[in-house]
Amino acid sequence: EPEVTQTPSHQVTQMGQEVILRCVPISNHLYFYWYRQILGQKVEFLVSFYNNEISEKSEIFDDQFSVERPDGSNFTLKIRSTKLEDSAMYFCASSEGQASNQPQHFGDGTRLSIL
Amino acid sequence: AQSVTQLGSHVSVSEGALVLLRCNYSSSVPPYLFWYVQYPNQGLQLLLKYTSAATLVKGINGFEAEFKKSETSFHLTKPSAHMRDAAEYFCAVSDRGQGGKLIFGQGTELSVKP
């Protein structure tokens, strides 16, 4: 069964550095998402992406965050000038069609640790 | 705005016992509802979804959930727990007009005792 893949599985970065989290969504999917889960807290929506542009973003997704689909397969989340509070599990997800009623398929996540 | 409340951050059952994980939602329009499971060090896996067809929804691994509009609930059940069901379970809502983002509950950790 096709799956969403995320790399790396664990990223350790010094505070203030830039980090890029990578995702390969399922190939025929059209909607892409990033979520994060701070340790012990609920999964939170960050951003959704469709047709090469952001369709919705949360208040968490401020100017330090950006997303890109640089080619036909990868979907990246960039965090500029990381802060300690950015430490979390970041999940990429994709869905096939009309987003609201289509299930989202999640990757295994990237654990981001900011030192 | 939509919201999801999961009653009980931790539920413990014995192997073979009934599993009941509670989820209540708040939405101004009929929602789409989902249950996801997260095993340790893994991503979220879809268990089942409600998208306004049958109110009783059957999912994978023997789980099912019933949508009750009058109670704004979407509780997850399984008649007989297995050790392998031990995981974190998340209820989520997606508003039809919102373009697909999921709003998650805080999660319920299910423990299964032998």
- The portion of residues forming beta strands of chain B comes to over 45%
Rounded to an integer, what's the Rg of chain A over CA atoms?
13 Å
- Helical region count of chain A? 0
End-to-end C-alpha gap of chain A: 37 Å
Strand content of chain A: over 45%
The percentage helix of chain B is: under 10%
The chain-level structural class of chain B is: mainly beta
Report the uncertain regions of chain A.
none
Shape of chain A: globular
Shape of chain B: globular
Q: Can you write the helix and strand succession of chain A as a string?
A: EEEEEEEEEEE
Q: Report Rg of chain B.
A: 13 Å
Largest sheet of chain A: 7 strands, mixed
Q: For the record, give the distance between the C-alpha atoms at the N and C termini of chain B, rounded to a whole number.
A: 41 Å
**Count of individual helical segments of chain B:** 0
Count of extended strands of chain B: 12
Biggest pleated-sheet summary of chain B: 6 strands, mixed
The residue-averaged pLDDT of chain A reads 92
Helix content of chain A: under 10%
**Most extensive interface:** A-B, 30 and 27 residues
Question: What is the topological layout?
Answer:
The complex is a heterodimer of chains A (115) and B (114).
Chain A: E1 5-7, E2 10-13, E3 19-24, E4 31-37, E5 43-50, E6 53-57, E7 65-68, E8 75-79, E9 88-95, E10 105-106, E11 110-114
Parallel strand pairs in A: 2-11
Antiparallel strand pairs in A: 1-3, 3-8, 4-5, 4-9, 5-6, 7-8, 9-10, 9-11
Chain B: E1 3-5, E2 10-14, E3 19-21, E4 24-26, E5 32-38, E6 44-50, E7 56-58, E8 64-68, E9 73-78, E10 87-94, E11 103-104, E12 108-113
Parallel strand pairs in B: 2-12
Antiparallel strand pairs in B: 1-4, 3-9, 5-6, 5-10, 7-8, 8-9, 10-11, 10-12
Structure explained in plain terms:
The complex is a heterodimer of chains A (115) and B (114). By secondary structure, chain A is mainly β. Helices cover 0% and strands 50% of the residues of chain A. In chain A, the strands form 2 sheets. In chain A, strands 2, 4, 5, 6, 9, 10 and 11 form a 7-stranded mixed beta sheet that branches. Chain A has a 4-stranded antiparallel beta sheet with strand order 1-3-8-7, with no helix packed on it. Chain A is globular. The N and C termini of chain A lie far apart (37 Å). The model of chain A has no long low-confidence stretch (mean pLDDT 92). In chain B, strands 2, 5, 6, 10, 11 and 12 form a 6-stranded mixed beta sheet that branches. In chain B, strands 3-9-8-7 form a 4-stranded antiparallel beta sheet, with no helix packed on it. Chain B starts with a strand and ends with a strand. Chain A binds chain B through residues 4, 6, 31, 33, 35, 41-45, 48, 50, 55-56, 58, 91, 93, 95, 98-109, and chain B through 32, 34, 36, 41-46, 49, 51, 90, 92, 94-107.
